[in-house]
Amino acid sequence: MCRHIGYIGKKKDLNSILLKHKHSLIELAYKPKHMKEAKLNADGFGLAWKNEKKFQLYKNYIPIWNDLNLSSICKSISSSLVIGNVRSATIIENQGYFNTHPFYYKNYIFSHNGYIKEFNSITKDRIYKKLNIKFKNLVKGNTDSELIFILLMQYINNTNNIEESIRDVIEIIKTNFSACMLNFLLATINEKGKDTLFATKFAKGLKAPSLFYIKNKNHNITVSSEKLNEQNWITIKNNSLLRIHNSKIIIKSI
Fold first, then answer.
1. Is residue 93 classed exposed, middle or buried when 0-12, 13-18 and 19+ CB atoms within 10 A define those classes?
2. I need a surface site. Which of 4, 37, 207, 214 has the fewest CB within 10 A?
């Protein structure tokens, strides 16, 4: 399980986007309000942001509140597209840098809040065997989240259709596993440098993790596992796919 935040809008410093809130990304780590499957998100954290037409990453596998560089980094970096994640490892052995979110491939950044039930070294082959050699070679860790991301990248590479690929990957997981939680954040930059943020709220056989969004008067949009402040956040319904682009939110059923 994890908690995550996605932001798309006018360029702002990462401190304002992720940390300068009553219920910040740090507090989502040590005092989550809506997380049912764990008590803490102490197994690492990661930040990803758009810089020109590329993404940059900062990840650490220590608890976010122990990183002494975090405040200065977030105050010195500004971006129009940001994802932040704090992690609680579903399997305690699956720790370390390569298992820490967000995951990065070309012009895509991915964060997963949830897990696949009964995912292990044997059952993960139900996903792994669907990867071709090129994408199998991209796998560096041993989590369900990374495999989901790599499979999604393969589908997008083959179809060039992000929404269709998200649906196809969710269908594969639904078909091959008895239960799962699949709240995704997927950020992308096209060849013209335009930003798009996708988000899902979905579960099979389990209750989907909480997810909210808010759009402020400047048309900045934040999607978050929990409300970051006492403003009027909107609860995202189960089985939803969000596409956020040019200050517009389109919500479809999965």
1. exposed
2. 207
Find the helix or strand (DSSP H, E) in which 158 lies.
Answer: helix 144-159
Which range marks the domain in which residue 242 is found?
2-253
pLDDT, one tens digit per residue, over 157-199 is: 999 999 999 999 999 999 999 999 999 999 999 999 999 999 9
Overall domain count for the chain: 1
- pTM for the model stands at 0.96
Q: How much is the average pLDDT of 59-82?
A: 97
Distance between CA atoms of 80 and 113, rounded to whole angstroms? 22
And the tokens for 62?
A: 């220590």
Conformational region of residue 180, where left means phi above 0, alpha means psi within -120 to 50, and beta covers everything else: beta
DSSP assignments along 84-128, one per residue: EEEE--SSTT--SGGGSSPEEETTEEEEEES-BTT--TTTTHHHH
Cα 15 from Cα 48, distance rounded (Å): 13
**Residue 182, Ramachandran bin (φ over 0: left; ψ between -120 and 50: alpha; else beta):** beta
Q: Exposed, middle or buried: residue 246 (CB in 10 Å: 0-12, 13-18, 19+)? A: exposed
Reduce the DSSP state of residue 21 to 3 states and report it: coil
Q: Rounded to an integer, what distance in angstroms lies between the CA atom of residue 135 and that of residue 182?
A: 21
CB–CB of 6/49 below 8 Å? no
Q: Are 230 and 25 in contact (CB under 8 A)?
A: no
Contact in structure between 236 and 199 (CB atoms under 8 Å): yes
CATH classification of the domain holding 132:
3.60.20.10
